[in-house]
Amino acid sequence: MELFDSHAHYNDEKFNEDKEEVLKQVYKAGVTKLVCAGYSLPSSKIAVEIANTHDFVYATCGISPNDISDIEENMSQNLELQLNQIEELAKNKKVVAIGEIGLDYYWNKENKENQKIVFKKQIELANKLSLPIVIHTREAIFDTLEILKTSSVINKGIFHCCPLNLDLIKEGIKLGFYISFAGPITFKNSKNAVDAINAVPLDKILIETDSPYLAPEPKRGTRNNSANVIYMAQKIADVKNLKLEQVANATYQNAQTIFKLL
Ligand code: NI
User: Fold this and answer.
1) How confident is the model at residue 262, as a pLDDT?
2) pLDDT, mean over the chain
3) Most buried residue among 10, 94, 173, 193 by CB atoms closer than 10 A?
4) CATH of the domain at 168
């Protein structure tokens, strides 16, 4: 059985010491493809480096809503400079999406308008490069959907670590996006997990770890790694009454489809 971790951060400093070893282990554990997601210019560069040196790793490039403080001082000029560099990076063959991009009103409430500008500009960049987008949205569901409805997102994309909110999930699917489930679906206190999983048809689900964060049950509280993506597959299999292999295969195919790896 092979698994596809659609979102992890081996570009995070928590993997500085032993990245090579961890990547070897997750491959051995059956994770034969994974996407290392950028969230800023420096982290996107590292993501591309990792992808270029590991056959089974792909990368995304982008600036997350929580990483725009250095752009904001001289917004239009700095944004253009950084986006030009993201664009150059994203021309690399191993780059499969622009992301993670979006809106986060949980960590940053003061700069909503700037977050929207940076999000929209990167949707335009994804369209220009014929890439899908990887969306980060937290406590910003209405505005996120509004932007997705009013901007044309030509190659669609993925709600990464999708909030377990049924309205968001239903609207997201209607707009043609994939839903990627992470550790929270396995948490014992997660109220909406079953309804959220049931709201997504099997051909629209991806699974991810968001490593090194958000380790699933029963690994909660430890440094996460891609081998744990099997717990998300198992949870979905339990809820949908399917075999683990069926979920592994479907999520693998779905990831290959949206990231155009077929
Ligand atoms: Ni992430």
Assistant:
1) 84
2) 97
3) 10
4) 3.20.20.140
Query: Considering its fold, how many domains does the chain have in total?
Result: 1
Closest CA to 205 of 240, 154, 241: 240
Could you tell me the distance, in angstroms and rounded to a whole number, from the CA of residue 36 to the centre of ligand 1? 9
pLDDT band at 57 (very low <50, low <70, confident <90, very high): very high
Q: How far, in Å, is the centroid of ligand 1 from the Cα of 246?
A: 25
Between the CA of 167 and the centroid of ligand 1 the distance, in Å, is 22
Cβ atoms of 4 and 36 within 8 Å: the answer is no
**What is the residue range of 17's domain?**
3-258
C-alpha angle 50/52/55, rounded to 5°?
95
pLDDT tier at 146, thresholds 50, 70, 90: very high
Query: Which amino acid is located at 162 in the chain?
Result: C
How far apart, in whole angstroms, are the C-alpha atoms of residue 255 and residue 144?
22
Structure-token pair, residue 180: 């990627």
Count of H-run helices and E-run strands, the chain = 10, 8
